[in-house]
């Protein structure tokens, strides 16, 4: 007879959830969001943790949370914030994430820290629009930074014909190292040096030339590893993603094709709601099959409504106005007085404009004396 594993009960931001032993706090939070999509905002952000990669997590500290009660047996809080991606749940644990101001404050500091050396070159970076650091900074960062020193610079490394390395953008999350280690036959790149001098490099400038190396592009949360065959071809929000597959003898070939008009400009692995690759794809599918006739098209890729990639891709008659926008409009904007007379007489328009300018000048003179 099948025995049910003992479940541990934890309270995460006031919501109770039961999970198996060995589950991390991050996974428990994702479980809540998977059961109720409206709770997605509760899930801690992850810049280094990547479920498909064994051993990932614990590097970036983006996912820190407060354990307000260690367990039912030991009700003391944990003294410091803990990384939710590698901390296992205990029965009776109470965790605070968005409900704890100290966590939110700490997260701002982590964003600031990750941006110390990261260039603000989003306008020319191929990752813009699907960059986890952009999302992290937008959702959790503050608008200013105190760092005044010079940013790190690196010598250029050529890591082969398919992958472009921009070391200045790397946040040292180690995802690409785990990917190369776990899904390719031999890893030829890794993190060299320590602390400020740490960098991703290939040993003796070897190319990453095995069949699955392109997957490091998909796991990189920032634009440090990008697709050389796609560089500068388009902004991601102008392209149209479509799910497709083909008959491939190396991988499942379940991919997303990215179209510009009729042209396939990029092929990537498909990703789940957490931005993680569902199935690894081979370099032949990724870099060499760029014709529609190479593929069996399944249909448009489901893109989260909140993603910039979804911009302009929905029919107006199927889009419901988001509630938050209506609430914001109600609370922040005055109703427009449409009953005002419609004036066309040029002299009256001129006089009204002079009067409006005079009032505006008076207001700004008043504000200046107040300050
Ligand atoms: S290159 Fe990208 S995936 Fe690799 S460690 Fe740097 S940020 Fe992470
Ligand atoms: S996602 Fe948990 S430490 Fe990076």
UniProtKB/TrEMBL annotation:
<comment type="similarity">
    <text>Belongs to the complex I 75 kDa subunit family.</text>
</comment>
<keyword id="KW-0479">Metal-binding</keyword>
<dbReference type="Pfam" id="PF13510">
    <property type="entry name" value="Fer2_4"/>
</dbReference>
<keyword id="KW-0408">Iron</keyword>
<dbReference type="Pfam" id="PF22117">
    <property type="entry name" value="Fer4_Nqo3"/>
</dbReference>
<dbReference type="InterPro" id="IPR001041">
    <property type="entry name" value="2Fe-2S_ferredoxin-type"/>
</dbReference>
<protein>
    <submittedName>
        <fullName>NADH dehydrogenase subunit G</fullName>
    </submittedName>
</protein>
<dbReference type="InterPro" id="IPR036010">
    <property type="entry name" value="2Fe-2S_ferredoxin-like_sf"/>
</dbReference>
<dbReference type="InterPro" id="IPR054351">
    <property type="entry name" value="NADH_UbQ_OxRdtase_ferredoxin"/>
</dbReference>
<dbReference type="GO" id="GO:0016491">
    <property type="term" value="F:oxidoreductase activity"/>
</dbReference>
<dbReference type="GO" id="GO:0051539">
    <property type="term" value="F:4 iron, 4 sulfur cluster binding"/>
</dbReference>
<dbReference type="Pfam" id="PF10588">
    <property type="entry name" value="NADH-G_4Fe-4S_3"/>
</dbReference>
<dbReference type="InterPro" id="IPR019574">
    <property type="entry name" value="NADH_UbQ_OxRdtase_Gsu_4Fe4S-bd"/>
</dbReference>
<dbReference type="GO" id="GO:0046872">
    <property type="term" value="F:metal ion binding"/>
</dbReference>
<dbReference type="InterPro" id="IPR050123">
    <property type="entry name" value="Prok_molybdopt-oxidoreductase"/>
</dbReference>
<keyword id="KW-0411">Iron-sulfur</keyword>
<keyword id="KW-0004">4Fe-4S</keyword>
<feature type="domain" description="2Fe-2S ferredoxin-type">
    <location>
        <begin position="8"/>
        <end position="101"/>
    </location>
</feature>
<dbReference type="GO" id="GO:0016020">
    <property type="term" value="C:membrane"/>
</dbReference>
<feature type="domain" description="4Fe-4S His(Cys)3-ligated-type">
    <location>
        <begin position="102"/>
        <end position="141"/>
    </location>
</feature>
<keyword id="KW-1278">Translocase</keyword>
<keyword id="KW-0520">NAD</keyword>
């Amino acid at each position: 007879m099948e025995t049910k594993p003992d479940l541990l009960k934890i309270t995460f931001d006031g919501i109770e959830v039961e999970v198996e032993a060995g589950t991390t706090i991050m996974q428990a939070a994702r479980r809540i969001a998977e059961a109720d999509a409206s709770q997605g905002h509760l899930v801690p952000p992850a810049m280094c943790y990547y479920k498909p990669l064994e051993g990932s997590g614990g590097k970036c500290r983006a996912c820190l949370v407060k354990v307000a009660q260690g367990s039912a047996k030991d009700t003391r809080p944990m003294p410091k914030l803990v990384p939710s991606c590698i901390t296992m749940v205990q029965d009776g644990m109470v965790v605070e994430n968005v409900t704890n101001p100290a966590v939110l404050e700490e997260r701002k500091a982590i964003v600031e820290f990750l941006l110390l050396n990261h260039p603000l070159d989003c306008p020319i970076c191929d990752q813009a629009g699907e960059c986890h650091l952009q999302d992290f900074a937008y959702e959790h960062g503050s608008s200013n930074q105190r760092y005044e020193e010079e940013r790190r610079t690196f010598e250029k490394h050529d890591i082969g014909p398919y992958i472009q390395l921009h070391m200045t953008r790397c946040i040292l999350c180690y995802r690409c190292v785990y990917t190369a280690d776990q899904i390719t036959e031999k890893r030829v790149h890794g993190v060299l040096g320590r602390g400020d001098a740490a960098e991703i490099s290939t040993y003796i400038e070897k190319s990453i030339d095995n069949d699955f190396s392109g997957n490091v592009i998909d796991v990189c949360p920032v634009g440090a590893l990008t697709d050389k065959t796609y560089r500068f071809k388009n902004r991601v929000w102008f392209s149209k993603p479509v799910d497709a597959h083909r008959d491939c003898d190396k991988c499942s070939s379940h991919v997303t094709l990215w179209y510009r008009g009729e042209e396939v400009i990029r092929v990537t692995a498909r990703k789940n709601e957490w931005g993680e690759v569902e199935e690894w794809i081979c370099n032949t599918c990724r870099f060499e099959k760029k014709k529609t006739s190479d593929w069996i098209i399944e249909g448009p890729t489901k893109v989260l409504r909140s993603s910039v990639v979804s911009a302009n891709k929905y029919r107006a008659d199927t889009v419901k106005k988001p509630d938050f926008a209506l609430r914001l409009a109600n609370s922040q904007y005055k109703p427009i007085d449409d009953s005002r007379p419609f004036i066309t007489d040029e002299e009256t328009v001129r006089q009204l404009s002079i009067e409006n300018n005079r009032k505006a000048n008076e207001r700004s003179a008043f504000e200046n004396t107040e300050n």
